[in-house]
Amino acid sequence: MTNRGADIKRSITVAAAQMTSSIDTAANLAAITRLATDAAAAGASYVQFPEYCTFYGSPARFAQAGESVPGPLTNLLGELARSLEITLHLGSVLEHSTQTNQFFNTSVVIGPTGELVATYRKVHLFDIDVPGEVAFKESDAIAAGETLVVADLGTLQLGLSICFDLRFPELYRHLAIEGANVLAVPAAFSAVTGPAHWSTLLRARAIENHVFVIAAARAGASNEGLATHGHSMIIDPWGTVLAESTTPGEDLLVATIDLDEVAQRRRQINVLGLRRSELYGGH
Description:
This protein is of the alpha/beta class. The protein has helices spanning 25-41, 62-65, 72-84, 169-177, 194-209, 260-268; strands at residues 11-18, 46-48, 87-96, 103-110, 116-121, 127-130, 134-137, 150-153, 156-160, 182-184, 212-215, 219-221, 227-229, 233-235, 241-244, 251-258.
């Protein structure tokens, strides 16, 4: 039996908040406040929200709903993070860009003193066509980001991503190589593809990089009828599901994770050290 008595535990309690965000920003902010307060009361020091948590609606409404980052919205939610003494991860907000009729889909991480810790603009845009089921072109209104980000939260090194990024494993391998021990996957994943792909892809990203995965998801239909899958999850570096939502609406998942497990699993199966990058043509 391994003696871990001398090991220093690096445990942190995290939360994934599932929402049914809408075009009503005030109602969305009220839900964020309520869920963050509940998560903090349950002991969570990191709370993640879904993609488009402050506004979810058609591109026709984007001009009125877009935000500056930093700006009044992040200042307001910075006060919430400070008051609760938590790291608040706004899965994504609709951010103004300098391009006409284009916006960014932007993750915002706010620290426990209310400061803006990191931002990440979604790099892979949801341009798909599944005949007879779902067709959508996110790039019509959203500009792609150009930078991958690992947010430094002390012992928690958070690799940032958003929704459709989940289908690109090379992004997550890069984040792991750059030091991420937790991957964030806030999402508004399609209800059409979600049942077949969502949980499988999340567990794969955890297993292949030996990292924790936290995935806060939007659930339910939008005002325009675009349905999202929900099924928020927290997964450990062995692929074990620590918590998952089975409700079609608002929910809150809380789990305590031990960040030492990342190094432990990588010692057992050295997926990063045994890479043959010289054979991959730089990929």
